[in-house]
Amino acid sequence: MKFRVDRDVFADAVAWAARSLPVRPSAPVLAGLLIEAGDEGLVLSTFDYETSCRATLTAEVSDEGSALVSGRLLADICRSLPAKPVDVMLDGARVSLTCGSARFSLQTMPVEDYPSIPAMPAATGTVPSEAFAHAVAQAVTAAGRDDMLPVLTGVRLEIEGDTIALLATDRFRLAQRELAWTPGQPDASVAALVPAKVLGDTAKSLTAGPEVTIALSASGSGDGLIGFEGKVFSPGGAPIGYRRTTTRLLDGEFPKVRSLFPSERLTVARLDKATLIESLKRVSLVAERNTAVQLAFKDGVLTLDAGSGDEAQASESVEAQIEGDDLVTGFNPQFLLDGLGAIDEPVVELAFTQASKPVVITGTADESASEDAGSFRYLLMPRRLLG
């Protein structure tokens, strides 16, 4: 194996492929990054039996071959190289890397011990990369982080025709985001439960090209795979390869959460998002751990209160456009901030049925109407108020 490759292109691809390497691999070879040089250039791969990453890039290949080296070490080396072409050659049991006057020699691992990279499922459709990354970032806000409840650490991806819905919950809150996409078949109907962390990292890493191809087997069961692929372009706009990630779907039944969104709204408040966030951050400074911040809606004002008894206390009022009954409730301040921060629009709408029921938070373009509510909805359970 012998090839020459552009330093920036190589370093970027290595960093991308190595980003998902396990911190504590179950076998030494799983810490490796597989380099394959052939007629079509380079293929860089990583795989931990759950998630695979595969990057292709153009290179001047003199001799075909493959080698398995430490992925994190190679990424660290590539990051530090001077801005000159990189020459890589397999020499016996070692890989030599030369860039300008910098020279490195890396120990290889046995390629034959490396697991086979799973094949990409058949393409299901395409979605604009930036829009998809943003939608996923909004949805994963509510995903669970407790590995004892693995189903809740996933995002349910539902495809119906030309719409993708993303749903996530940790039992205390629920996020739903919908976006348009281009299906391979107009009547496509499929669902999958994708690990939230993998989905978030993957969507964010595939924004170099204009669109992402999503590949999902129709079964959508726990033994299935989902794949994501995006093209990579040079600064001049020329295609220089693609990046592909596959991950195993989570097994288990995701709760039927859509019914949690109430059909009626008895109290609706619209507020300037930035003002509410700043006020909530200030008031929550005195909220003890696991205690709620109180929200009181009355006479065109939202009053936020935190702290109680002999402890520090804080109170602040914010102008609000309120329709319906007066209402006093309370929420985990960080969960509330998470939801507000995921909303794009400058005005937020908080819709209630009653104080003891969840709030549904959406974004609107202005304070006068709710018909233009965005496609992101965040439902948050209230917390019991002390005192």
Automatic annotation (TrEMBL):
CDD domains: beta_clamp (cd00140). Forms a ring-shaped head-to-tail homodimer around DNA. It is found in: Cytoplasm. It comes from the Bacteria. One of its GO terms (biological process) is DNA strand elongation involved in DNA replication. Residues 127-256 form the DNA polymerase III beta sliding clamp central domain. Belongs to the beta sliding clamp family. It holds the Pfam family DNA_pol3_beta_3. GO terms for molecular function: 3'-5' exonuclease activity; DNA binding; DNA-directed DNA polymerase activity; identical protein binding. One of its GO terms (cellular component) is DNA polymerase III complex. Confers DNA tethering and processivity to DNA polymerases and other proteins. Acts as a clamp, forming a ring around DNA (a reaction catalyzed by the clamp-loading complex) which diffuses in an ATP-independent manner freely and bidirectionally along dsDNA. Initially characterized for its ability to contact the catalytic subunit of DNA polymerase III (Pol III), a complex, multichain enzyme responsible for most of the replicative synthesis in bacteria; Pol III exhibits 3'-5' exonuclease proofreading activity. Residues 1-118 form the DNA polymerase III beta sliding clamp N-terminal domain. The keyword Manganese does not apply. This is Beta sliding clamp. InterPro entries: DNA_clamp_sf, DNA_polIII_beta, DNA_polIII_beta_C, DNA_polIII_beta_cen, DNA_polIII_beta_N. Keywords: Cytoplasm, DNA replication, DNA-binding, DNA-directed DNA polymerase, Nucleotidyltransferase, Transferase. Residues 258-371 form the DNA polymerase III beta sliding clamp C-terminal domain. The lineage of its organism: Bacteria, Bacillati, Actinomycetota, Actinomycetes, Propionibacteriales. The keyword Transcription regulation does not apply.
